[in-house]
Structures are given as structure tokens and as C-alpha cells.
User: What shape does this take?
Amino acid sequence: MTGTARVILVGIALSLVQWVEPLFAGDVLRVGVMDQQMVMERTKGGKLALEDVKGYSMTRQKIINSDEQDIKDLQQSLQDPNVKLTDQARQEKEEQLRSKMEAYQRRLQEFNREVQQKQREMVAEYAQKIAAAAKVVAQKEGYTAIFDKGNEAVIHIVLYYQPALDVTDAVVKEFDRQNP
Assistant: This one.
């Protein structure tokens, strides 16, 4: 994260704390943290969704692998010194190879977009479900806020926390209760 982004996040956090503080004057501010990715990986519904996306991706990968093999076979037939081709036959095979390469590139881009779209949809759906489970945990256990501690792939909003503040296990249990 850039220094500017970090300054902006700290500024936003400080302004929120200043704004919220008068609302709860005298109240104890309880904050928890959770790991959304871990919730996804450890809940029954999350595991199924991850497996679904993985299966979707693997199906497309098999098609891509087949296309790659077709291209390799065609390239080998063009490079095989034992195969004698007329100039016209060679041109036709080279054109066929170019055509297959272009189709392969288009299909690869299309499949990548499809898989990314499916992942985004799954993440959006489960982020809402995880937020609902976190809200219930916060209300039951008296938390004012629960933050996602993030991971290496996303911005770390929570830079430090005491392990006792981690409510990931409680959110996993609540998620599974809400989404049998």
C-alpha cells in the first residue's frame, strides 16, 4: 500500500472514531477482527462455493489443454523433416496453425474473463453472507465493530490486534448456522 493510501485510511479511521465517540460517550468500545478468507475456507457453504469455482475453472482448463495439444501437434507436423509437403499444403497448414492460435488466444481470454467473473460473483455473494454472520456475532457478543484483518492479497486495514479479539471461529459457526 502506498504511503498516501495509508495516510488516507488512517485519516478516515480517525475521523470515524471522532464521529462515533460522542455517540457512545461512556460506553466501552469493543472491536473484533476476523479473516473473511478463512471464513470462506472453513464454512461448509464456502468450501462448496470454492470447489464449484475450482471445478468450473478445471473444466475450462481441460479445453485449453486440448487446444494447446492440437496446436503442438500441428506445429510438429510442420517441423517434421520426414513429412514432405507441397508449398500449397504447407501454406494451408501454416494458415490452419495461425487460425488455431488466434482461436486459442480468444478462447483463453474468454475463459479467463468467465472464471474471474464467476469468482467475483461468488466473493460478492459470500461477502454479504459473511457480513450477516459477523453482524449477528457482533450483536450477540457486544462488539461495536468487527474488522476484516485482510491477508497478503488485499489491503491490511488491521495492522495489529490481540488474538483474543479474533472472532473468526464464531463467525464460521454463525455462518454455518445461517447457511446450512
